[in-house]
Specification:
Blueprint: H1 11-28, E1 35-42, E2 48-57, E3 60-68, H2 77-91, E4 96-101, H3 104-112, E5 116-125, E6 128-136
Parallel strand pairs: 3-4
Antiparallel strand pairs: 1-2, 2-3, 4-6, 5-6
Protein name: GNAT family N-acetyltransferase
Domain N-acetyltransferase: 1-139
Organism: Roseateles subflavus
């Protein structure tokens, strides 16, 4: 046997480790129905302007990434992306949604869109607070 570390570990091995941890976690639970979820907005020239992605699982929307092109920020596109992801999740039967951010402005936007902060980790990254926010459409039993 031989140990590898840092740059010696191939990207494929890193992905295999991630996949194995996720698979193990899902095997411990009952009823995983994980599905990718995404939406994207393109301009007339085919350039990506905004988008978001994540997954739905266990009747919850997990938003992993939400992005708006820097030149288009402040136009409400971030809220539009989130509402589209939410609409897809609701059609899939989700009861709530979870999103995290290190940006105070983004956390304020999510709160404006109906999310409530359920956790803070101050100085998660020096100078930044990690905000975990949740939006409940229907309470869980």
């Amino acid at each position: 046997m031989r140990w590898c570390a840092d740059n010696e570990v191939p990207a494929a091995a890193l992905q295999a480790i991630r996949d194995a941890v996720v698979l193990h976690g899902r095997q411990q639970t009952q009823g995983s129905d994980a599905q990718d979820i995404a939406c994207a907005l393109y301009d007339d020239a085919g350039v990506l302007v905004a988008g978001g992605c994540g997954r739905t699982e266990f009747q919850r929307l997990y938003v992993d990434y939400l992005w708006v092109h820097p030149e288009r920020r402040g136009e409400g596109l971030g809220g539009d992306v989130l509402r589209r992801l939410e609409a897809q999740a609701l059609r899939r039967g989700c009861l709530d949604a979870l999103i995290e951010t290190l940006l105070d402005d983004a956390a304020a936007l999510y709160e404006h869109l109906g999310y409530a902060c359920i956790a803070h980790v101050h100085d998660f990254v020096p100078g930044f607070t990690r905000h975990t926010l949740m939006k409940v459409w229907r309470p869980r039993d």
